[in-house]
Amino acid sequence: MGLLAGVTVLWAFSFSLIGVYLAGQVDSYFSVLMRIGLATLVFLPFLRPSLLRGGQRLALMGLGAVQLGVMYIFFYQSFLLLSVPEVLLFTIFTPLYIALLDDALFGRFTPFYLLTASLAVLGAAVIRFQGLDSGFWTGFLVVQGANLCFALGQVGYRRLSANLPDSLPRHSVFAWFYLGALVVAVPAFALLGNAAGLPTSGVQWGVLLWLGLAASGLGYFLWNLGATRVDAGALAIMNNLLIPAGLLVNLVIWNRDADLLRLVVGGAIIVGSLALNEWWLKRRSLSPA
């Protein structure tokens, strides 16, 4: 849980940085390529190919292609179709996808996870719902594509990691994850990118460096590692804890308007769903087999 909380703080800055310095100013496909390319460079020196079999390497690359490559393309495109509040609102369904996909991949059904994930969705909705403009359904579907990719990548990594030895140094194989994402990002920029939309200021280049090295490089490694150390319910809830964290950063640093009452109430619901999930886990562990 500590890893997920730490990455939540790290990623809380990303939403505002993208919205303030990149969205509508830097080509989205170039931003995706830069973030993934820099993240790859972080872990490539640690790569030890012999630690994984061929099928495992392909699986890890496939997870990177989906969770990072395809997800980023969906996510960045959504800002061209929706307002920022609408994008944030529509990301609240990710916990439900995680709860359902985790049960499907691990061959079980846990109704309680749906309850706690639904509470996390409710809390995020309280924070972000500000009414919707007409003609937003295409954007809604694009955001759901990003949500599904992110959820599938997290759950898929949990499933893959469960079949790997505990002694395996995860940082020595995680470059395969980013190489898989590059397989998506490189042709996407080559075919759809706009060379005229490259960064034009040192600030924009600096933001991309931070997002690539820290948010994408360090962040996704630690997040996926943390995902293997918690249950599906906690993972689902932590996905929506990013919303109040991101709003707090936006309010404190950029002084953007925020409804503090909604922030407090919605955040309390999300934290409450996490506490409920932890209580249920402890109660289940104490129950006789």
TrEMBL record:
Keywords (A to Z) from UniProt: Membrane, Transmembrane, Transmembrane helix
SUPFAM superfamilies, per the entry: Multidrug resistance efflux transporter EmrE
InterPro entries noted in UniProt: EmrE-like
Record-annotated membrane-spanning stretches: 29-46, 58-75, 112-129, 135-153, 173-196, 202-223, 235-254, 260-281
Keyword Membrane (UniProt): yes
Record-given protein name: EamA family transporter
